[in-house]
Design brief:
CATH superfamily of the largest domain: DNA methylase specificity domains
CATH architecture of the largest domain: Alpha-Beta Complex
Strand content: 15-25%
CATH topology of the largest domain: Adenine-n6-DNA-methyltransferase TaqI, Chain A, domain 2
Structural class: alpha+beta
Number of strands: 23
Largest sheet: 5 strands, mixed
Helix content: 25-40%
């Protein structure tokens, strides 16, 4: 029977802090090829690439360090508890603490799951007035339960099997998203939809210039109702409860994130029924990273005012509306329209007035028929991933504490 011992992180890993090169020096950033991870890069188990890169000069002239493959990265500032495993050499900003494992003592995959389990406990160590942060010394003294290496490997293998299934489903979801996007571009940007090859192009008299005859330029409000969420009183939120509140944290780009930290037990009297979400609803972020769009899975969640629901006037154009809002050009327009000094904010009224090309009905119907299966399959795969992640998350605390032993 495996024996679990309490060990300090500082005794089994080398803990390395990150750093940020001077952002005003283009020599540190221009054409950089060194991965530089920040919080948005840590939302997946494996870090394969980073949004931003730095140069050799930037690395040399900052406190950032180049970390080896299989370093476990833990976000330790502001948002605390995101964990990822570097599968490419990378550096990080100072918002992370990075664990280079001693392979004779700890399996990096096991450490990943152990840190995920201990994230809430670790977060309690954070201090700071402006934003909370965990320092290297406190991290060194954090204790985790550690069995022998063969047992660590078995635990990591069982838990990784769930993550592998989730990752494969996410790859399929991404492929479905790309298929729908390419079709939208071909039909509604390049105007190469089936049956319209010989349709005459006419001047729309708008910013869109020439469009196929029979098509129109309308406002967003002619196609979809942009419904604001309800202004819940944040002071009434609970850490758990009957109803889950959807905030901008749940609306990622093309991904509805089912991690909730705001709940209520009673529905407000004046909350409209439109704020109760159902599977397949389209959401739009109105603040922070404005313009992010995703499709809801699950049902019964409640919509916060910082997020809007896009309710198509006709159900058969749901796929068209989603694809329209996912277009890079359209999202850049939403970003340009937003305002706010500390944080971007987008008004639903502004969104409603945006002009868009409205194809004739037959083409819209064809597009919907072709892409509906893409959207439905993506929703089903997301629901499967939710079930897999719930099983995995239920298993993690049992196996990394020794409450449930895995036998070879």
């Amino acid at each position: 029977m495996a024996t679990f011992q309490k060990v300090k992180l500082g005794d089994i890993t080398e803990i390395v802090s990150g750093g940020t090169p001077d952002s005003s020096n283009l020599d540190y950033w221009g054409n950089g090829n060194i991965n530089w991870a920040t919080l948005p890069d840590l939302h997946h188990k494996y870090l394969l690439d980073t949004h931003r890169k730095i140069t050799e000069l930037g690395l040399k002239n900052s406190s950032a360090k180049l970390l080896p493959v299989n370093t476990v990265i833990f976000s330790s500032r502001a948002t605390i508890g995101e964990v990822s495993i570097a599968k490419v050499p990378t550096s990080t900003n100072q918002g992370s603490k990075n664990f280079i494992c001693d392979p004779s003592k700890v399996n990096f995959e096991y450490l990943y799951y152990s840190l995920k389990f201990n994230a809430k406990k670790i977060e309690q160590l954070a201090t700071g007035a402006t934003y909370k942060e965990i320092n290297k010394t406190d991290f060194s003294n954090v204790e985790i339960a550690l069995p022998d290496l063969p047992t660590q490997s078995r635990i990591a293998s069982v838990l990784s099997a769930y993550d592998d299934l989730i990752e494969n489903n996410e790859k399929r979801i991404k492929a479905l998203e790309e298929m729908a996007s390419r079709l939208y571009t071909e039909w509604f940007v390049k105007f190469k939809s089936p049956g319209n090859e010989k349709v005459q192009m006419v001047d729309s008299g708008t910013e869109f210039g020439m469009i196929p005859e029979g098509w129109e330029v309308k406002k967003i409000s002619d196609l979809v109702n942009v419904i604001s969420g309800f202004p819940f009183k944040s002071g009434t939120y609970l850490e758990s409860g009957k109803y889950k509140i959807v905030t901008i944290k749940n609306v990622h780009d093309a991904k509805f994130v089912m991690n909730f930290d705001s709940f209520i037990n009673e529905l407000p009297e004046k909350m409209p029924g439109s704020c109760v979400l159902k599977k397949g609803d389209i959401l739009l972020s109105l603040t922070g990273n404005v313009g992010r769009v995703c499709v809801v899975y699950g049902a019964g969640h409640l919509l916060n005012q910082r997020v809007a629901k896009l309710d198509p006037n006709n159900s058969y154009i749901r796929e068209f509306i989603y694809s329209l809002f996912r277009q890079e050009r359209f999202q850049k327009r939403l970003e340009a329209m937003s305002n706010g000094a500390a944080q971007q904010n987008l008004s639903p009224i502004q969104v409603k007035d945006i002009p868009v090309i409205n194809p004739e009905g037959r083409t819209l119907d064809q597009f919907s028929n072709l892409t509906r299966s893409y959207f439905d399959e993506a929703i089903n795969l997301n629901e499967k991933n939710l079930n897999l992640s719930q099983i995995r998350d239920h298993l993690i605390p049992q196996v990394v504490t020794g409450k449930r032993l895995l036998h070879s």
